[in-house]
Amino acid sequence: MGDKGTAIAAWRRVPRSIWAIGFVSFFMDISSEMIHALLPLYMVGVLGTSTLAVGIIEGIAEATAAITKVFSGALSDWLGKRKMLMALGYGVAALTKPIFPLAPHVGFLVAARFVDRMGKGIRGAPRDALITDITPPDLRGAAFGLRQSLDTAGALLGPLLAILFMALFSENFTLVFWIAVVPAFLSAGLAIFAVEDPKHDGDQHKVRTPLSRKELAKLGATYWWVVIVGSAFTLARFSEAFLVLKAQDIGLSIALVPSIMVVMNVAYFLSAYPVGALSDRMNRLSLLITGLLLLLAADLVLAFASGLVGLVIGATLWGLHMGFTQGLLATLVADTAPPTLRGTAFGMFNLVTGVALLIASVIAGALWDSIGPTSTFIGGAIFTLLTLLGLLPLRHRIGMTHKNRK
Description:
Layout: H1 2-13, H2 16-36, H3 39-46, H4 51-79, H5 82-96, H6 99-102, H7 106-134, H8 140-168, H9 173-179, H10 181-193, H11 213-217, H12 221-236, H13 241-249, H14 259-279, H15 284-304, H16 308-336, H17 342-370, H18 373-391
Helix pairs in contact: 1-14, 2-8, 2-10, 4-7, 4-17, 5-7, 5-10, 7-17, 8-14, 8-16, 12-16, 12-17, 12-18, 14-16, 15-16, 15-18, 17-18
GO molecular function, one term: transmembrane transporter activity
Keywords: Membrane, Transmembrane, Transmembrane helix
InterPro entries: MFS, MFS_dom, MFS_trans_sf
């Protein structure tokens, strides 16, 4: 009862611009997930792309976003204009959406995916730094959890709408891709007109050379431990595209395959905000370790799932893992980064974890093509277990309780 009351009280205190940022994420994720839920099937089933190629494309696309985040984050520290860069990133992503229904062959889809992820990269670090700037320290977990929950609500509705429209329009991929354009432009409009930039005194949030060795050294040892932890988590978790392919592998129809993302995102949505609010009152790394245990269970269930029940259980566990980890990793970066280097800190974190995702997705695709789907999830379980064993000794080094945060 106490934890529930704490979560509700924190919800009411979250600044208005955090809600606006949350709905910006909500609409963009509806659009992105409508496309993302169908794209692996479209590429493999319609265009004849290999599963390994899907893994490589997904990994490189996310790595592209991560690399872009470094420079956009550093630029936001240099300019002190976080909202401007965030809005630019959402605008770029919105402009790529019409390319998906217009693409005549896979090359255009790959290019659109990369530019879309560049938009994600441009907005990501400035947005997270902006959330940190706006939010009081005792509400950071709740603020990041709220944004993650609204983001995930969009990611939940996206596949649901994809299923609905695929059924209504006789599995017409092109038409569904066109419908996905609308929420993307709503998102960009909200980013421009509904989010306010906090006012700072003088040059408080400007850094002359944020990517210099001198400035990076100011990030501190605890921050770099957070980067190591985030990288380990990402190596243990490959792209969700493989959940979609697993659903197809067990025999779900093309129209129903996106339902696996719906199941995952329901669990993600329901857990992200409560876990974020709870993390404002306890050790955050302990909650992250719980998230790893959930991922280990998800990998093992999905490795041996041969029917709908196993698939649903595995997707639910995967979604709970996401709810326990994604918002908290961002909150740990916010806790440990100096105020004048927050954009750079989020950018560097996303660069390193993006490279880790590239490695994980390529390995997952190679295992799937060479051995089979079971090996992909068994490999994930092994790496998750190794990551878990490596993180246990660190639980007192980072992830402080709320009493120690600044």
